[in-house]
Amino acid sequence: MPISSIGAAHVAAALAALAFGLFVIATRKGTQLHRAMGMAYAIAMVVLNLCALMIYRITGHFGPFHVLALLSLATIFAGVAAVVRRRPGWLAKHYRMMNFSYLGLLSAATTQTLINLTALHGARRGTIIGVASAVAFIATGRIILPRLQRRVLAAVGMD
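^ thats the sequence. predicted structure below, dont judge the formating
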């Protein structure tokens, strides 16, 4: 099946966000390079989610994946706003929001891969797998991220 221009932009933005996000996670925080790659990640995520909101091929109507795209946009905007505003606790909020954003991206990538590899193209099964994948990633993040966040904040003297 041919891919639409919106679908192509969605995939390109997703691949860029995966790469930029991994780079940001794997490198030293607070540097100029971290800020530049973080902004590139945020822009890629906004493009990715705006494209997602225009794709209706799976269900034919607004559905759970669109809700997840809106949630993803909210985490990106909250994470960037925390940096811009720099109110008390901004770093912890930035860390939490951006990490949940990346977890959501990994969840979506996993879901798309599972659907494509297992030929589960039915809307109902795809939706169930997508929501289950998102719930699993978020649940895992709720367990792991607070521990990692304490380490990161302690390392920069903001614990």
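The CA atoms of residues 64 and 131 lie 7 Å apart.
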